[in-house]
Write a structure and sequence with these properties.
Helix content is 80%, strand content 0%. The longest helix has 41 residues. The protein is built from 12 helices and no strands.
Length: 297
Amino acid sequence: MRNVFTFIWRVLTAPFRFVAWIFRSIGNVFARIFRPVAEFFSEEPEDTPIGDVLQTGFENPTSILYHLNVLRKHIFRAVIGFVIATVFAFIFVEDLLDWITVPVGGIDQLQAIEVTEPIAVVMRIALLTGFTGALPYIAFELVMFAAPGLSRRARVIGIFSIPLVVGFFVGGALFSYYIMLGPALDVLLEFMGISTLVRPASYIKFVTNLMFWIGASFEFPLVAYVLAAMRILKPEVLRDNWRIAIIVISVLAAMITPTVDPINMGIVMVPLITLYFMGVGMAFIAVGGRRKREAEA
């Protein structure tokens, strides 16, 4: 008789137990997803001196291989994200090509000589657009790789700096397009009164290189702040070596600038020098805030 009542009870409560099982399964899934997130923002790594870390690496090379394997996985995922973003970028290639060729009067002003030039042009635009689109995910993978060795605050700074990474890169690329490209083309296309035939391959290569390197240069203040906040970079090093930095910036400006005139080189140098000193100031701000919190603690 007891078995009969047990069977009836199981039949009556089956729908409720099924619903409870569904909610329990969903809860377990969310727990598996959010547990690493909670650990990411709460755990503090063991504070090991760098000398001990290097000694451990020399004594146990397999530990280095483990980190290299982890780095390989993060790089692989970042490359996959870059490839996916590049594939999606092909949808907007035509509109981007029209936008990039505005300074020379539109796409009709470009004349290809080799049969592979149009394909090369499309690929360069798609790659630059794909890199820009995948930049948040690439930065995220880099932060996740470094996260186990960073403090909780450093991990939080790294995560929340990802939108700024994209903003600085896009800002630098737009600065090169709207501010630097016009004066550079005025010199290049009218130099010595020689008529210049604008080829798609050379023009797009010139524009994309300029936008990429200036966009990357605009990352310096943010990188300096993040590295100083993570105790990797000392702002005094940047401050005391500003003369060397200006020489290096001059060389970089000469490499980035497509012309030999001092005007265009100055157009590149001035923002780079300004960004360097902004980076010095950001590094001091990061260190000052960290020391203040340590003193309060």
